[in-house]
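User: My collaborator sent over this chain with a note saying "see what the structure looks like." That's all I know about it. Can you take a look?
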Amino acid sequence: MTTAVGADTARKPATMAQALGRALRDAMAADPSVHVLGEDVGTLGGVFRITDGLAEEFGEDRCTDTPLAEAGILGTAVGMAMYGLRPVVEMQFDAFAYPSFEQLISHVSRMRNRTRGAMPMPITVRVPYGGGIGGVEHHSDSSEIYYMATPGLHVVAPATVADAYGLLRAAIASDDPVIFLEPKRLYWSKAEWSADAPEQVPPIGRAVVRRPGSGGRRAATLISYGPSVPMCLEAAEAARSEGWDLEVVDLRSLVPFDDETVCASVRRTGRAVVVHEAAGFGGPGGEIAARVTERCFHHLEAPVLRVAGFDIPYPPPMLERHHLPGVDRVLDAVARLQWEAEWTEGSAV
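Assistant: Without extra context I'll predict from the sequence alone. Here is the result:
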């Protein structure tokens, strides 16, 4: 993005919600083919106010309130993309997207392959997802595995203010459909950021080491994404008092998956824990653990472990703190990574 002459480029505290809104505004200003549509995105500015002001600035033809019909919303976006537009769809809440799965799986994910690349499908589907806000059922799901298991879709999940802006701009510019998972509990997280000169971030498909480790004998890698990344960073700091040195990898992109960065970290540390809010059985952690094991087997000092949400429908708000992974559960998993003293004791029996 080109910075206007005289623009204020100073870094100031900004929320993830503000960065997402700015990304949409800048994309619409730069490209008239970008259209935003969804439930309450226009007059209200979205339930989380991400699209606030877009209808006034660009008109209701480009920021359009739709009926409460997710299948119809995404089906409309397919037609828009086929005619050369770049629709950005908001699904309002994670589980509200389920009625649109037929369109997503049968058409959005397959159209480019079906036409042998002749018809791109530049659709970005914004999905506010995850728990931690006291939401009820159908408002707090972590449904990323459904999208990951659908070939033809890119799946990204930012954990920082800078990534929220940079990844959303990249998603909108992509000719492939992108499921853009927005961690609701991080909407109001803040960081120093310049809206007029946003920093460059790695592209979709690249992970980032958020907290480097030393790779010593008491080292391990925490692999996470989206809403669990700040908690993993907190756990890594807490682990220092136990003598553990934890490296934290933020995946950022679930599809494409950055095997190179993840496996380089695990080879350094020899141990790994995958952390996410989604259920453990059949969840993203199983695929990630399998990929790490296949590629790093001879470097592993212990099995790859997972810390995940329980294998239940999302619980009532008063119970979600028990369901969501936290620092204590992460540290418990790290303690089970067959450290040298335990391994020696076991071998002596």
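A starting point for your reply to your collaborator: The longest strand covers residues 272-279.
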